[in-house]
Amino acid sequence: MDSEPNTGEGSSSSSAAAAAAALQQQQLQQAPESATSPAAAAAPPSRYESQKRRDWNTFLQYLKNHKPPLTLARCSGAHVIEFLKYLDQFGKTKVHISGCPYFGHPNPPAPCACPLKQAWGSLDALIGRLRAAYEENGGRPESNPFGARAVRIYLREVRESQAKARGIPYEKKKRKRPVVTAASGINTGQSSGTSSGAGAGEASGNATGAATTTTV
């Protein structure tokens, strides 16, 4: 008589355990699927990466349409400069010529017939993206045409000429020099203060001199 209630309780306990085991097995099977789902695995590219891909495709199309056709392996710094000049026709920045009455005027009061060109900042950023894309697509750093000296000189000339024509000087960002602290102080407070003042003045003068002589 007492065995029947025990049998029912044991049967219900085993059924609950079996159901829990089945639920756990189902969760384990669904976990890899959610981890490898397209939404979790494929993250959208950043704005920089998307722009870099578009710039790279534009340059490859330019080489394809070049007369005569030009391959990437034969591309040099001179061809990169030709590409930058080609892009000027799509520019939106007014660059006054030397004979224009608004030459050097940052805010001209009236329109003029001076050409529109690509701004120096846009060209500089473009070269940076193409330089990275070239190496990401198998190019060697030592043969990167976007890092050629001729390209750097051309960008510098564009920057200087546009600064004069538009009356907007481009200020170069100064790099912060690391602060060097003395390991120990042996001199007295007075001598330490004197030497610190002299050292600070000299360091400031050296930094100013280096900043004025640094080339782009």
UniProtKB/TrEMBL annotation:
Belongs to the plant homeotic and developmental regulators ALOG protein family. GO terms for cellular component: nucleus. Residues 1-10 have a biased composition (Polar residues). GO terms for molecular function: DNA binding. Residues 47-174 form the ALOG domain. One of its GO terms (biological process) is mRNA transcription. Keywords: Developmental protein, DNA-binding, Nucleus, Transcription, Transcription regulation. This is ALOG domain-containing protein. The keyword Transcription applies. Residues 1-52, 167-216 are annotated as: Disordered. Pfam families: ALOG_dom. It is found in: Nucleus.
